[in-house]
Design a protein that fits this description.
single chain; alpha/beta; Indigoidine synthase fold; 2 domains; eleven-stranded mixed sheet; two-stranded antiparallel sheet; binds pseudouridine-5'-monophosphate; binds manganese (II) ion
């Protein structure tokens, strides 16, 4: 059912480090043509870090782990790719559709292919003012063992509620050289992590203990955005508040809300939030490669 590229298949069978990458941020989270440029840069960053990238999507109904250059272009360029969470995968398969995978669906497919490390920008979580709109990313993080490298949950969300939900779902939240949960565009949220790790070897040790105990769920490795691109919380909060008001006025809901808010905050910050988003993605991917390399040693 899952098609794994020859490159990724070979890497997995020979114990080489592999890093999974998602495609929703390409198809729905970043503007065209920047999205394609970023997708390629993220793969190049994984290679530069000594690991093999596996970007994941559904193509013509076929879940695919490890996109070719043409396949990535198809997902990043053609409109009409569905936004797929775990529950949506059978729909795309049954209907033979193209779809981009969220954090949740990417984890589901990556785990079945045998990939242990995954990098993204910011996970989904509990929406502000919509405490019943909880991303299925949290459900998946609670049940699929994987090291998920991110800059925390997206700042457009209710971060304190998301932090509580991570605890309820039993997700181990680790801070990369920090005691604080990053806030996606900003360095800190004022919320704590469960453990601080100083390097890839410490992250690998945590993973080995997690697997030895057969602990459920993910290790969420949270990395602050690069300081030179991070936005001050007070400033970005004003833009988020205004983006949320516009979303409410336009009646935007469900899976449309996250892409809408990311776009609107990018417009209101004159593109600075987009630069922060791209910078943190590249940083997360580089750290994920280091963790994947540490996991493949020994
Ligand atoms: N990280 C980014 N940009 C994105 C996302 C993550 O830098 O667009 C995507 C991920 O695919 C995540 C999704 O799973 O946003 C969350 O969507 P929702 O809130 O609808 O669950
Ligand atoms: Mn939602």
């Amino acid at each position: 059912m899952i098609r794994i590229s020859d490159e990724v298949k070979h890497a997995l069978s020979s114990g080489q480090p592999v890093v999974a990458l998602e495609s929703t941020l390409l198809a729905h989270g970043l503007p065209h043509p920047r999205n394609l440029e970023v997708g390629r840069a993220l793969e190049a960053d994984v290679w530069a870090g000594g690991a093999v990238p596996a970007t994941i999507a559904v193509l013509g109904g076929r879940p695919t782990v490890g996109l070719t250059a043409d396949e990535m272009e198809r997902i990043a360029t053609r409109s009409g790719a569905l936004k797929l969470s775990t529950r949506d995968l059978p729909i795309a398969v049954a209907e033979g559709r193209d779809g981009a995978t969220t954090v949740a669906a990417t984890m589901w497919l990556a785990a079945r292919a045998g990939v242990r490390v995954f990098a993204t920008g910011g996970i989904g979580g509990v929406h502000r003012g919509e405490p019943r709109d909880v991303s299925a990313d949290l459900t998946e993080l609670g049940r699929t063992p994987m090291v998920v490298v991110c800059a925390g949950a997206k700042a457009i969300l209710d971060l304190p509620a998301t932090r509580e939900a991570l605890e309820t779902y039993g997700v181990l939240v680790a801070g990369w050289e920090t005691d604080e949960l990053p806030a996606f565009y900003s360095i800190g949220s004022g919320l704590g992590v469960d453990v601080r790790v100083e390097d890839a070897a410490a992250a690998a040790a945590l993973w080995r203990s997690h697997r030895a105990l057969e602990s459920p769920g993910a290790i969420l490795l949270c990395v602050p955005p690069p300081a030179e691109l991070a936005l001050p919380t007070a400033e970005v909060e004003a833009q988020i508040a205004s983006a949320l008001r516009r979303a409410a006025a336009e009646g935007i809901r469900g899976k449309e809300i996250t892409p809408f808010l990311l776009r609107e905050v990018a417009r209101l910050t004159g593109g600075r939030s987009l630069e922060a988003n791209v910078g943190l993605l590249r940083n997360n991917v580089a750290i994920a490669a280091r963790v994947a390399v540490a996991l493949s040693e020994r």
